[in-house]
Amino acid sequence: MDPYTDIVPDDLGEVIRKRIRERDGDSEGRPAKRARANTDALLPPESDEQEINEPLKPEDDLENYDRERLQKGLRYINGAAKRKITPRTEEFLKMHKEAYKAALDGQSPERASCAVVQALDKIYYSEAFFFKPRESAEHEHLMQYVKLRRLDLLANYGDYLGQELQEIRADLNAAAKDADPKVREAAIKLGRPKTWVNIVDELAGADIGNLRKQVDVACAVLGIDPKHMLWLINEWAERNRFFHCQIRDYISDCHWPRLAKQLHRDLKELINVAPDPDTAASYERVLLSIRNEYFNVKSRDDPQHWIPNDKACKLIDEKIEREEKRARK
């Protein structure tokens, strides 16, 4: 990701590049690597700080960016970064903070450093571009939009993640033939019948170290970046949780508490998410038929009191029997 083109809008990225070149004297347009003072060292003692909740208006004159004004801007960014914000705004605030720190890192603010701060202030202050909700309702709408766009990405590109993981698994199985025992073990631990959702659950469990070690072994053999591999696994599992038939997985794996919670949640939210009452009623019939097929419902409003019925218990017995047969092979 190029912060100047992906984070900053339109052609303003080049303006920021120019200001940073002037500040750091880098003809290639890259910010010079230099150590910045700790943020706390650049601000007054905590007792002297005043909480700043609103973004400061950009100064028209660079001379107005004195030490006090810069410290106020840095305090605002510190507070804003702790709130729930969009990823794009979060990345921008990292750039913004570094610009303020560079301007404060000296006996007196340099004009070139203040020019970078001013340019970034103007971008951030434009509410049409950066999402800065004015009230809780606007913030809730923004987070819903971000969530929907996240689902959109998973829907559009999720299959490509699965395809890449399928190829990785096939390559690992091929590499495991006549290979070091560690590689064969990795192929088994990351292979079928496990799903990538199962593997994500294991990575989040108590035995994370062992499975993570298998991922590292597989990546070393195949020449893959382990971070990318872990991202693929997590993202593909997330896609499957949203778009794969999760209910069928819960049933085949006999995860009755998870099935109960999911059905209960969906039944409660149908009227809020369905496009019209008729669609909600139709979905309700489907969900209730699944619930009644596998549970004896003692309390409609508490999924903890949905007890697996005889059919569900029979599926548990069959699953245990299959697993014992596999273990004996």
Describe it.
The chain is an all-alpha fold and 329 residues long. It contains 15 helices and 2 strands. The chain has a two-stranded antiparallel sheet with strand order 1-2. A hairpin with an 8-residue loop joins β1 and β2 (306-308). α7 packs across α8 (181-189) and α13 runs antiparallel to α14.
Low-confidence stretches: none
Describe the biggest sheet? 2 strands, antiparallel
Number of helices: 15
Provide the structure class: mainly alpha
> Which percent bin holds the helix content?
55-70%
Overall average residue pLDDT: 80
| Strand segment tally | 2
Radius of gyration: 27 Å
Strand residue percentage: under 5%
Calculate the terminal CA-CA distance, rounded to whole Å. 49 Å
What does the overall shape look like?
A: extended
Write down the secondary-structure element order: HHHHHHHHHHHHHHEEH
Strand neighbour order, sheet with most strands: 1-2
Task: Provide the descriptors you would attach to this structure in a database record.
329 residues, mainly alpha, two-stranded antiparallel ribbon, 15 helices
Summarize the structure.
The protein is about 65% helix and about 0% strand. It has about 325 residues and is an all-alpha fold.
